[in-house]
Write a structure and sequence with these properties.
This protein has 130 residues and is mostly beta strands. It has one helix spanning 104-110, and strands at residues 3-7, 10-13, 18-25, 33-39, 46-52, 55-58, 66-71, 76-81, 90-97, 119-120, 124-129. It contains one helix and eleven strands, in the order E-E-E-E-E-E-E-E-E-H-E-E.
Length: 130
């Protein structure tokens, strides 16, 4: 059974940085599709960043500010967030999909879709004050 646990959230001021971590178990981490999503109060969950092996994709709103990465030895996914803005305030979730493959042209967009993933963590709160 896949288990995902996020950590690293907190409160920062505008322009600050945070690094989120997602400890994963129960699946082939190296070959899985992984993603980071956010959900603000009253809004739908949306994808910020996705990764499969060494390929990544980002939402336009976070390009140049957020970086997704993974440590295969530690089975941990990261999201480095720099230049944080008040609109980044949300609950952040880690997601995994064990069966992951296909053409990159399609997979690239899939990495940012909520419906693409079948395993989710409990989330970690990020609050950015102005």
């Amino acid at each position: 059974q896949v288990h995902l646990m996020e950590s690293g959230g907190g409160s920062v001021q505008t322009g600050g940085s945070l690094r989120l971590s997602c400890a994963a178990s129960g699946h082939n981490f190296r070959e899985s599709c992984m993603g980071w999503f956010r959900q603000a109060p009253g809004k739908e969950r949306e994808g910020d960043a996705g990764l499969v092996r060494i390929s990544t994709n980002y939402a336009d709103s976070v390009k140049g500010r957020f970086t997704i990465s993974q440590d295969n030895a530690a089975n941990t996914l990261y999201l480095q967030m720099n230049g944080l803005k008040p609109e980044d305030t949300a609950m952040y979730y880690c997601a995994a999909r064990s069966l992951c493959g296909g053409l990159w042209s399609t997979l690239r967009a899939d990495l940012l879709r909520v419906s693409f993933y079948d395993n989710w963590g409990q989330g970690t709160q990020v609050t950015v004050s102005s």
